[in-house]
Structure formats: C-alpha cells, structure tokens
Amino acid sequence: MRPAENTMLSVVIPSYCEGSGVIETIAAVAGVLRDAGIPYEIIVIDDGSTDDTWSFLERARPEHPRLRAIRFSRNFGKEAAIWAGLRHASGGAVLVMDADLQHPPERIPEMHRIWRDTRVDVVEAVKTHRGKEPLLNRLGAHLFYALMNRLSGFDLDRATDFKLLDRRAVDLLLRLEERNLFFRGIVAWMGFKRARVTFSVPDRTQGRSKWTFVKLAGLFTRSITAFSTLPLQLITLAGLLFLIFSLILGTKVFVQWWMGEAVEGFTTVILLLEIIGSLLMLSLGILGTYLARIYEEVKRRPLYVEAAVLEPEPAAIDPDDAPAETRRSDA
Which helix (H) or strand (E) holds 140? Predict the structure, then answer.
C-alpha cells in the first residue's frame, strides 16, 4: 500500500469549444469524487475556444469552488493543454481525461484506488470498444497504432489519454524539454510500473469531435517523428535498393551493347525517371519534416500562453491535501 502522503487527486480536463458541455463534465467528475470521498481539485484548460466555454467556466466557479480554469490566448493544441494542466496540478496523483464525457468519470474511483493501494505509477484506461465511430476513423486509428508499434516499439493499441499518474511520473514529464509532445507516447516511453482498467466509449451527449482529418494527420506526423528515426533509415534503404537495381540494369545494357544488340526500352527509362524522381521528392519531404521538428525545438518558444486564470476558492482545498514535501523515492 502507498505510504501516507498527499492523496489528493488533480483532474486535468483539456477543453476546446465544449460550451456548456464542460460544465456537465465538471459536475459529473465532482459528484463521483465527492461520493467516493476522494479529496480533489479540477483543472480545466480552455484551449483558445472560440465559443462561450470560458463564460461557462466563470459562471461555474461559485458552484464548484475546487475548480481552477486556465484560458489560452489562442488554440495551442491538446498536448499543450495537458502540459499546462500538469504544471498547475498540486495533487499526489494527476488524472487526465477528455471534456466530452467519453472518458467515463465512473472509472476514476477505481483508478485512484489502484494507485493508492499499490505501487504503480501509472493507471491507464484502455478501450474495450471504440463506440460509434466512422469506419474511416476506425481504420485510420488501427493503421496509426500499427505503424507506431512498428516504428517506435510502443504498443499503443486501444490506449487513450485517460490516465492517472503518480506525482513522481508527473514531475519527470515536466522536466522534459521537448516541444513536440505526444502524451500517450511519452507516458509509454517512461516505462514506469503501470496498471490497466478497461472502459467502453459511451456515446456523445452533445457536440461532435473537434479532430478533423488535417489535425489527425498532423498528430500522426508529430507522433511518428517524435518517437522514431526509422523513416530516415528507410530513405537509405530505398537508395541502396535502387543502387543495386541500377547496377543490374547497367550490366544488362552493357552486355547488350557488347554483343552488338540495339539498346531498347525508352518507356522503361521514362518510368525509372518518374520513380526515382518521386522517391527523391518523398525523401526530401521526410527530411523536411524532421528538419521542421528540429527548427521548432531550437526556437525554445513556450508551449502555450495563458491569457487568464481562475483560481479555486482558498478554503476549498483542505490543508491536509497540500503536496507533501517528501516524495516516494523507491522505484
């Protein structure tokens, strides 16, 4: 069992254009944690919403005194919102979940119990069923996870951002200096002791997914380039294969010329030029993607800019829930 220390749970909820739905999520989470007797704080990050999400958060503060809300100056992305929530969290454990209630709050007490009663550092919720999702999105997700596993060695199939992390894991995450972040991948990379709980994705109560094809493609590119250099190695492999093919073809042409036969194959030459040209353009694209990642890293710009912060009521947090000075140091 975990030694007596800070057992408060910080719940981090990234939100983008959720409107009144974010209040429904806050109420559901607060109700579940109160019923379970878990000391908590709720941290909502408004990721530059263009609707009335922030207005709803301002009006929710009197009813939810343990609510802390951070508003970004513009949309910086979900990964940046998660990191902002981690930095503001003061609990001994931090749970990250979506704002659309597709991560069921009813699973939180079990995740907290596993963390409290065992020595695991990460309790992750994995999907048993993806819910109502378009076939194209479902196939794209399977392709993404399969490629991620092949390229990086991390099996993220059925993984989600619905995770509970021990303070030690959170502190390690916050020490990382990367700018190209992928929360699920970095948690897998840390390799801490972990436990799993399962859940089925419920139907949305309102709104729709904010993940467009362009955003998903961007996430795919950032994730692959952040955790694997195999695409760069594939360029070298393709170049080696074309070199071998060129040597074979050149030998064939030389033998034909030596034997006095006419060298034919104009169509073949055109096709080879098109293939080689396409390969070169694709290779330059891959190199450009990695250079772009390096460019973003060396600029050292902040991950996000906070435009406003709503602090919880001072009396809302029990002094006994304050972070412990001494953290568990055993592995």
Answer: helix 135-152
Region of residue 191 (phi > 0: left; psi between -120 and 50: alpha; otherwise: beta)? left
Statement to judge: residues 48 and 148 lie in one domain:
yes
Please check whether residues 168 and 23 belong to one and the same domain: yes
Strands 163-166 and 122-129: antiparallel
Q: Domain range spanning residue 91?
A: 9-227+302-316
pLDDT tens column, 95-117 = 999 998 889 999 999 999 999 98
- Examine residue 321 and state whether it is found in any structural domain, yes or no: no
Reported as half-sphere exposure (CB side, CA atoms, 13 A), residue 279 has a value of 17
CATH number of the domain within which 211 lies:
3.90.550.10
Copy the structure tokens of residue 11: 């719940």
Residue 21: how many other CB atoms lie within 10 Å: 19
Which helix (H) or strand (E) is 221 found in, with range?
A: helix 213-227
pTM: 0.73
pLDDT digits (tens, 9 = 90+) for 29-42: 999 999 999 999 99
| Cα torsion through 9, 14, 17, 21, rounded to 10 | -20
Residues 39 and 14 in one domain: yes
pLDDT digits (tens, 9 = 90+) for 263-288: 566 656 766 776 777 778 778 878 87
> CA–CA separation, 8 vs 318, rounded Å?
9
